[in-house]
Structure formats: structure tokens, C-alpha cells
Amino acid sequence: MKLIKNNLSEKLIINKYFKKLNLKKRGTFNFENDGAYLDLNNKNYKLTVTTDSISEDIDFLSNDDPTSIAQKITTVNLSDIFAMGALPHSYLLNLHLPNHINENWLNSFSHRLKKIQSKYGFYLLGGDLSKSNKLIVSSTFFGFIKKKLEIYQNKFNLNDDILITGNIGESKIGLEILKKKLLSNTNLKQYFIKKYLYPRPCKLGPLIAHHVNSMKDISDGLIGDLTDMLNDKYGALINVNKIPLSVKTKKILNIKKNYRIENLINAGDDYGLIIISNQKNRNKILSIANKNNIRISCIGKIINEKGIHFDSYLDIKNIKKFDHFC
User: Fold this and answer.
1) Do 134 and 55 meet the contact criterion of CB atoms below 8 Å apart?
2) Is the Cβ–Cβ distance between 312 and 256 less than 8 Å?
3) I want to staple 276 with a disulfide (CB 3.0 to 4.6 A). Which of 91, 176, 214, 284 is the partner?
4) Under 8 Å CB-to-CB from 144, ≥6 apart: which residues?
5) pLDDT of residue 3
6) Strand partners, 130
7) Which of 3, 206, 20 is nearest to 112 (CA)?
8) Using one digit for the tens of pLDDT, what is the confidence trace for 145-175?
9) Which domains does the chain have, with CATH numbers?
10) Which helix (H) or strand (E) holds 72?
11) How far apart are CA 156 and CA 145, in angstroms?
């Protein structure tokens, strides 16, 4: 999509592209106030909250489609909401817009947001607009969860199962193809690029919340995020052959001989879930995932020895967690 310079006003942007996203909910004041309110109107539930930002040239490329950027800002937040065992309720959206953003861009971006809102059942509560040299999108999401339910990221016991949803490394392969760091045949190329441009959150969390000890989304890489969960108290023993790779990813590994699973196990933006649970709940969790057509794999267990250990040759000493400041 070619972007041309346009004279946009804050009022035009709000009225034409974002008012439709508030679904006329009472607490939004139809975006005519400087604030809003939330009322769950249910004594059995409480609010959850998470916030995240994505920036041009760091989290997305400058020429990425606006529908992809809308997908990413919602996915990074929905993924956290689902990892808390909660369901989405509403969100705030802040846009820092460079001069090249025009009405075509805003139309595509807001249309994608509306589609995602409809799919997952939440609405836009409000937000802010400003100008910037580069595109920055930030959002705060609110969810709701039963008052007595609390999902921590680092509460578990020795010998608990470690499970993950989805496949590992597909977004990274897509990004490296776009950056021409990794070549692929035409059939595989489009598959991986789509995985990078349009990540999707895993909505399993709320469905299994009563059967888990801990959950976290895989946003900064499997090894990095699992290390954060262990919190230097316990360790993890990982069965390398159980780490889920798609058939297409295995083809990449076969074609590119110097490209190995080590390149993928700490790739970011997968947005599956890391689930740690008592072994007695394994069959229940697997059953719920299968009924909802969600791929899930039991890849290891919690052990006493600190750190992450593999049942094969893999060495994670040189595997670094993704960091925005590195």
C-alpha cells in the first residue's frame, strides 16, 4: 500500500475511524470526555490489566501492512490476558503517527481492529493521538476473571509438567525471510511471512485456568520466558524431540543444514502459552486443548537443579532472551 501525505486532524481520525470501535458502550462517553469508566457490574469477577507497545523498526518493519500492525498490538496484549486465565473486556489505544500515515492506512488499521474485537468480544474504551517521527502503537487491555482465581507465572512444584501450545519459531523464520537472511521456496515463503505479519494469541488460558499452577505467553522466546518463570528457584528438564515444530519448519531445517532448532527455541513472537501444571491434570488439559483444536505438547518437567537442561546435545549458554534494549 502506497502512503501519501495527508492533512489529518485528531477530530477527523477519532470520529471517522475510531468511534466505531467503542460499540457505543456507556463508559466511553462516545469519546467526548477525556476519561472513561469501567463497570463489570458483577461481584463475582475482577478486572485484570496489561499494557504493551510496539515500535517501528523494532517490533515491525516500516512497510508492514496496517492490518498486520493492528494484529500485533492486539495479539501482544490478548496473549497476556489469556495467560492470566482471563477474558478480554476493553482496551485503550495510543497512536504516535508520523506524517506519512494517511486515511487509507487508518481505514485498514481500524477495520482490522473491529474484526479482532468482534472475534474476541471486547471494545475500545478510549486513548490518545500524537505526532511522531516513527510509528509507535501502545495499548492497555482490561480483562475479567473470577475473583477467587489467580494465575501466577512462578508458582509450581517439583515434577510438574511443562506444556506449550502451538509451534515454535515460525514468526522468526518469516522475519528472516523478509530480511533476506533466510531464503525459502515460494510455497514455504508465504506461509512463514504470514506467521510473522499476523500472529494470533492462544485463547486456551481461560479454559484451563482451574487446572494449572502457572502460565505465561511465549513473547520473548521459549527459553527466555521459561527462565523467567523458573525465577532462579527450580530448573526444567526439556525433551528436545517434544518441542513442537510444524512440518514446514522441519522442511526449512532439512533444506538449510546450518539452521538448527537452536535458532528457534528462543525466537520471539510465537504467542503460544507455557503451562506448568500438576501431572494429574495432564489429560484434562490435553482434552480441553484438543476439543478446541489447539495444538499442545508436554515438553518436560520441573526439576530441582536450577537452570534449563535438555535431554540431548543442546547447550543454552549462548542463547539470549530477546531484550528491547539490546
Assistant:
1) yes
2) no
3) 214
4) 40, 42, 45, 46, 47, 48, 86, 87, 89
5) 37
6) 96
7) 20
8) 999 999 999 999 999 999 999 999 999 999 9
9) 14-146 (3.30.1330.10), 161-310 (3.90.650.10)
10) helix 66-83
11) 21
pTM of the model: 0.91
Q: Which mean pLDDT values do the consecutive 10-residue runs of the chain (326 residues) have?
A: 58 93 92 86 91 95 95 98 97 96 96 98 96 96 94 94 97 91 78 95 97 96 94 91 95 84 88 98 98 98 94 63 51
pLDDT for the residue 182: 81
Edge-to-edge order in the sheet of strand 161-165: 214-217, 273-277, 161-165, 296-303, 235-238, 307-310
**What pLDDT score was predicted for residue 254?**
87
pLDDT digits (tens, 9 = 90+) for 316-325: 555 555 554 4
Q: Which of 183, 167, 164, 179 is nearest to 249 (CA)?
A: 167
Inter-axis angle of helices 170-178 and 186-197, to 10 degrees?
A: 110
Grid cell digits, residue 229: 518463570
Q: Which residues contact 71 (CB under 8 A, 6 or more apart)?
A: 112, 116, 197, 198, 199, 200
CB 205 within 8 A of CB 84: yes
Q: Roughly how many angstroms between the first and final C-alpha of the chain, as a whole number? A: 31
How is residue 18 written as a grid cell?
475510531
How far lies 111's CA from each of 22, 29, 144, 311, in Å? 13, 21, 25, 47
Residue that the C-alpha cell 514455504 belongs to: 188
Q: In the structure grid, which three cell numbers stand for residue 243, read together?
A: 518441542
Residue pair 146/43 in contact by the 8 Å Cβ criterion: no
